[in-house]
Write a structure and sequence with these properties.
The chain contains 5 helices and 4 strands. By secondary structure, it is an alpha+beta fold. The protein has a 4-stranded antiparallel β-sheet, with helices on both faces. A hairpin with a 5-residue loop joins strand 2 and strand 3 (49-53).
């Protein structure tokens, strides 16, 4: 498995989560990423928390986007997000495996090289660094 990243997408209403599948489908179809795990957390109008594994009933075509989910997200992960949700809202927790680093590493190795470091820098830090050096 390649490098993974956890992404949380929140929605102000519970029913809006279905749109996430269309966004991810292009990336999956182009072998840019793989969805390793995904859950939906929501807080109902009366405060009740619900945690659901995402499937085709939640997001259209999900079984082709995430055909082999792995149990990487825990109940504790879900609870951290549920605690922050307002009533009537929801969030999708995704574990995304980036596929391009594996391809890069394989090609570097084939050419006699070794990838020594792969670090992700968050966008805010990049913006600050760009302003400092400008």
């Amino acid at each position: 498995m390649g490098p993974v990243e956890v992404v949380i997408i929140s929605y102000p209403e519970i029913g809006l989560v279905a749109g996430v599948s269309t966004v991810l489908e292009d990336f999956v179809d182009n072998d840019q990423l793989r969805i390793a795990d995904a859950i939906l957390v929501s807080r109902g109008e009366h405060g009740q928390a619900v945690v659901t594994d995402i499937d085709d009933t939640v997001a259209p075509n999900w079984s082709s986007i995430c055909p082999d989910p792995r149990p990487l997200l825990s109940a504790d992960d879900a609870q951290l997000i549920v605690d922050e949700l307002g009533e009537g809202s929801s969030a999708v927790l995704l574990v995304i495996e980036h596929l391009w680093p594996r391809k890069l590493s394989e090609r570097a190795t084939d050419g006699g090289g070794v990838v020594e470091l792969h670090a992700r820098i968050d966008p805010q830090t990049v913006e600050v660094a760009a302003k400092v050096t400008a």
